[in-house]
Specification:
By secondary structure, this protein is α+β, with helices and mostly antiparallel strands. It has 23 helices and 25 strands. The strands form six sheets. Strands 5-4-8-7-6 form a five-stranded antiparallel sheet, sandwiched between helices. A five-stranded antiparallel sheet has the order 10-9-13-12-11. Bound molecules: adenosine-5'-diphosphate (ADP).
Length: 750
C-alpha cells in the first residue's frame, strides 16, 4: 500500500461505505468466494482515499474461518474520473429522455436542418399537426421550398446577418406553405451550430396572432381614416369659424367706417339686439344695455323726434314700407348727435304674427354739422353780398352828397353879383365837401390795401402823449359845439410814453374811434386815453352815446358792417372805419374790441405792444403803475359818473392820481387795499352804503385820514350832523375854485 492508513480499519472506513463493506464481507464469507470492492478509507492525514480491495475468506485445514486475506490499492484518481463518467452518462441518458419527450410532446414545431443544404434532418410531430405534411414529405427537403416566396429573401437576410454577427439566437417570422395550400405564420427561434453543420430551430404558430394583428391594423387604419375625416371636418369647421369671425370683423370695421349700426327688434319678446356700432353711436355701455325699445326711445331720442321714429317703424310693420327718418339722439356721453334711421324689414312667424323688425342707424352728425356750416357760409356770403350792395348804395350816397355840394357851389362861384360873404361861405362849403370826399376815397383805398396785404407799417419813435394831446385839440372844439365833455388821460409821463410804433396808424385808429363816439353821442361825455398793462398799451375811447346791441358788437368790425340800416340812414357812413381800425390794430400786433350797452354808451379798446424807446426807460416804466402811484392819491366816492368826471376835469392840471369808487362799500374796500390814499372826497347819498357810514368805518381804522364830504345837503343842521366824522364839507354844485382850494389845503405836503 502506498498510503499509510490509521490503525483501526473500522474507524478509517467512510461512514457512508461502512455498511456496504460489511455486506461484501458477509457475502464473501457465506459464499466462500473472493471479493472485490471499492470504498473510502481515511489515511493518517485524515484524508479519505478510494481503495480497491481484492480479497477472500481465509480458512484453516479443518475449514474453520480465520479471517480475510487480500490486497488493497489506492485508486482515488481513477475512481473520481469513473464517478464523473457515470454521472455524465446518467445525465446524458436523462436529458436525451427529456429531449425526446419535449421533442415529441411540444406544441411548438421543432426541427434540425442542415446548415448548408437547408434540408430538414429531424422534425417533430407538431409539423404534421400544424402544416399537415407527413414526416417523409418534409425530411431531406430544403425548408426554403415551403416558405412564402415574399418571405424567402427577408428570412435569408436575417439568418445570414445574425450568423455573421455571431448572434446565437436568430428570431424571425415567415409564412409556411401548409399541405392544404394555405399559409401559416410561424415565429422562429433558430440556433445554428456551424461546427456540427446543423441548425436547431423552434417555431410557434402565430397565424391567429397575425390575423388579429391584421384585423387590428385594418381597424386601426379604419380609425385613422375616420380620425382623418374627423380632423378634416374639424379643420373645415375651424376654417369656417375663422372665416365667419373674419367676416364679422370686416362687417364691424365696415360699420365703424360707415358709422352705421344695425338692429333687430324681437317683437314678441320686446327685446332689442344691437351691433357693436350701435353702442358706439349711442355711447351706451353694452353691459348696461337693457334691450328695451321703449327705454331707448324714451331716454335717447330727442323728444321732438320720437314721433317720427315711431312712425317710421310703424310704416314698415303695417305697410311694409320703409321710410328713412332723420332724428337727434342724446348720447350717454351728453352729446347730441344726428342720425339717419331706417326700419327696413318685418318678418312674420308661422301664424302671421310680427316676429322681427330689422333696421339700421347711421351717424350723420359730421355731415349735418358740415351742412350747417355750409348753410352758415352761404348765409354769410349772402349777407356779405347784401352788405356790399348796401355799401355801394351808401358809397354812392356818401360820394354824391359832397360832390353835389362841390359841383353846385363851384357853379355858383362864377356869379358876378355874388357877395364877398357868400363867396367865402361857398368856398368853405366846397373845401369841407372836398375833404369829406377825400376821406371817403381814402377809406376805400385803405380797406382795399388792407385786403390785398399791401398796407405797410412804418415803425418809428412815437410819443403817445403827443398823439393824445393833438387829438384832444382837434376834437375839443367840435365837442364843445355838440355840448359834450371830452376828456383825455395819459397815465405815463412823456418820456415813458415814447415807444416804437406806427404813428399814423395809431393816430388814425384813435381818431376813427373818437369820430364814431362823437357821431353816436348826443349828450354826456367822451373820454379817451390809454393804460399800460403788462407789455401792452391798452387804448380806450369811452362815450355815453347810443350804445351797440350785443349781437352786433362783433359784426361792426367787419367790412361794410353797420349796426343796422336805420343807423346808416340816420348817421350816414360807409361801415369801413372800424374794419380799417381792426386791420391797422392787427398790423401793429394788437387786438380791438368793444364793451357796450344800449342807451348807456360804449367803450372801444385796442392794444399795441409797449416797446419803450430805450431799456432804461423800460425798466422804469415796467413799474409804471407804481410810478403813477407815486402821485398823491385822492379817492373820490361818487355814484354819478359825470360828477366824478367833473371833479377829475377840475383837478386835471394837478399832479394827483384819482381813484373812483361808486358806492360806500367800494370806498371802504378800495381804502383797505390802497394804503397810499391821502384824501377822500366822499359823497353822502350813495347806493349800498352811504358816505357817512363808510367814513365812520374808515376813521375807525385810520382816524387821521382826512375825508371831505361833498353833498347836495346844504342846510346848516345837516352839515352839522356830519361834522363829527368829516374834516370838511363841499356843497354841490361844486365850484372849481372851492374844490381846488379845499383839496390843495389838505394835500399840501403829501
Ligand atoms: P361808419 O362809417 O358807418 O360809422 P364804422 O366802421 O366806423 O362805419 O362803424 C360801424 C358801425 O358801428 C356804425 O355804423 C355804428 O352802427 C357802429 N358804431 C361804431 N362806433 C359806435 C359808437 N361809438 N357808438 C355806437 N355805435 C357805434
Amino acid at each position: 500500500m502506498e498510503q499509510e492508513f490509521g490503525n483501526g480499519w473500522a474507524e478509517g472506513v467512510h461512514p457512508d461505505d461502512f455498511d456496504f463493506c460489511l455486506q461484501i464481507y458477509v457475502s464473501a464469507f457465506d459464499k466462500r468466494e473472493p471479493f472485490e470492492m471499492d470504498y473510502r478509507l481515511k489515511n493518517k492525514f485524515g484524508e479519505y482515499r478510494w481503495i480497491r480491495d481484492f480479497g477472500r475468506p481465509f480458512y484453516d485445514l479443518d475449514e474453520t474461518f480465520l479471517g480475510y486475506i487480500g490486497s488493497c490499492y489506492d485508486i482515488t484518481n481513477n475512481k473520481e474520473k469513473e464517478l464523473q463518467l457515470i454521472e455524465a452518462k446518467e445525465k446524458a441518458e436523462d436529458s436525451e429522455e427529456k429531449f425526446k419527450t419535449i421533442f415529441n410532446m411540444s406544441q411548438s414545431l421543432i426541427c434540425i436542418a442542415d446548415i448548408n443544404t437547408s434540408k430538414f434532418k429531424f422534425i417533430n410531430p407538431t409539423f404534421e399537426k400544424i402544416l399537415g405534411y407527413r414526416q417523409e414529405e418534409l425530411l431531406n427537403k430544403p425548408f426554403f421550398d415551403f416558405i412564402h416566396p415574399d418571405d424567402i429573401k427577408p428570412t435569408k437576410e436575417v439568418v445570414e446577418k445574425k450568423l455573421q454577427a455571431g448572434i446565437a439566437v436568430q428570431t424571425f417570422e415567415n409564412r409556411y406553405l401548409c399541405k392544404n395550400g394555405n399559409y401559416c405564420w410561424l415565429n422562429w427561434n433558430s440556433y445554428p451550430v456551424p461546427e456540427k453543420g446543423v441548425t436547431y430551430a423552434i417555431a410557434h404558430d402565430i397565424t391567429k396572432l397575425k390575423k388579429n394583428e391584421k384585423e387590428l391594423k385594418e381597424k386601426n387604419e379604419e380609425y385613422e381614416a375616420i380620425n382623418e375625416e374627423y380632423k378634416q371636418t374639424n379643420e373645415e369647421l375651424f376654417n369656417a369659424k375663422n372665416r365667419l369671425e373674419e367676416s364679422e370683423k370686416q362687417l364691424k370695421r365696415a360699420q365703424q367706417t360707415a358709422k352705421t349700426g344695425n338692429w333687430i327688434w324681437y317683437i314678441q319678446e320686446n327685446k332689442l339686439w344691437w351691433s357693436d356700432e350701435m353702442y358706439n353711436i349711442f355711447e351706451i355701455d353694452k353691459n348696461t344695455f337693457t334691450g328695451k325699445l321703449d327705454e331707448v326711445i324714451e331716454k335717447a331720442i330727442h323728444p321732438e323726434d320720437k314721433q317720427a321714429v315711431e312712425q317710421s317703424n310703424y310704416s314698415v310693420m303695417v305697410n311694409n314700407k320703409p321710410i328713412p327718418v332723420e332724428y337727434r339722439i342724446n348720447t350717454n356721453g351728453g352729446q347730441q348727435k344726428y342720425v339717419l334711421g331706417l326700419a327696413d324689414k318685418i318678418t312674420l312667424d308661422r301664424n302671421g304674427k310680427s316676429k322681427l323688425l330689422t333696421g339700421i342707424v347711421k351717424d350723420i352728425t359730421d355731415y349735418k354739422l358740415t351742412q350747417k356750416e355750409l348753410i352758415a357760409a352761404k348765409e354769410k356770403a349772402e349777407e356779405s353780398d347784401r352788405l356790399k350792395s348796401a355799401f355801394l348804395q351808401n358809397l354812392s350816397h356818401e360820394i354824391r352828397t359832397p360832390l353835389n355840394a362841390i359841383c353846385g357851389f363851384s357853379g355858383r362861384l362864377n356869379k358876378s353879383n355874388l357877395s364877398e360873404e357868400k363867396r367865402n361861405s361857398f368856398v368853405s362849403i366846397i373845401q369841407n365837401s372836398s375833404n369829406q370826399l377825400l376821406s371817403i376815397i381814402s377809406h376805400v383805398l385803405t380797406i382795399s390795401a388792407l385786403e390785398t396785404n399791401q398796407e405797410k407799417v412804418y415803425i418809428d419813435k412815437v410819443c403817445i402823449n403827443n398823439i393824445i394831446v393833438d387829438l384832444l385839440a382837434i376834437f375839443k372844439q367840435q365837442t364843445v359845439n355838440q355840448n359834450i365833455s371830452l376828456y383825455a388821460k395819459q397815465p405815463l409821463n412823456d418820456k415813458q410814453s415814447e415807444i416804437y410804433t406806427d404813428k399814423t396808424k395809431t393816430t388814425q385808429i384813435l381818431s376813427n374811434l373818437i369820430s364814431n363816439a362823437m357821431k353816436f353821442t348826443h349828450e354826456g361825455f367822451i373820454e379817451f386815453g390809454y393804460n399800460l398793462k403788462d407789455n401792452e398799451l391798452e387804448f380806450y375811447v369811452k362815450d355815453s352815446g347810443i350804445g351797440i346791441k350785443v349781437e352786433l358788437q362783433e359784426k361792426i368790425f367787419e367790412r361794410f358792417g353797420q349796426a343796422d340800416l336805420s343807423i346808416n340812414r340816420k348817421y350816414g357812413g360807409t361801415g369801413l372805419g372800424l374794419a380799417i381800425s381792426k386791420g391797422f390794430t392787427e398790423l401793429l400786433g394788437g387786438k380791438i374790441w368793444v364793451n357796450s350797452e344800449i342807451d348807456k354808451g360804449s367803450t372801444f379798446y385796442f392794444t399795441i405792444p409797449y416797446k419803450p424807446v430805450n431799456e432804461v426807460d423800460k425798466a422804469k416804466t415796467d413799474n409804471s403803475e407804481k410810478l403813477v402811484n407815486k402821485k398823491p392819491v385822492i379817492l373820490v366816492a361818487e355814484d354819478e359818473e359825470f360828477n366824478f368826471l367833473y371833479i377829475e376835469e377840475l383837478l386835471i392840471d394837478f399832479d394827483y392820481k384819482l381813484i373812483h369808487a361808486k358806492d360806500g362799500q367800494e370806498t371802504v374796500d378800495i381804502f383797505k387795499t390802497n394804503p397810499d390814499i391821502s384824501l377822500i372826497l366822499m359823497d353822502i347819498k350813495m347806493p349800498i352804503m352811504d358816505g357817512h357810514t363808510a367814513a365812520k368805518l374808515i376813521k375807525e381804522i385810520k382816524p387821521d385820514l382826512q375825508i371831505i364830504a361833498q353833498s347836495a345837503y346844504a342846510l346848516e343842521h345837516e352839515i352839522e350832523k356830519y361834522s363829527g366824522i368829516f374834516d370838511d364839507y363841499l356843497t354841490k354844485p361844486i365850484t372849481e375854485d372851492i374844490l381846488i382850494e379845499k383839496v390843495n389845503k389838505y394835500m399840501i405836503n403829501k
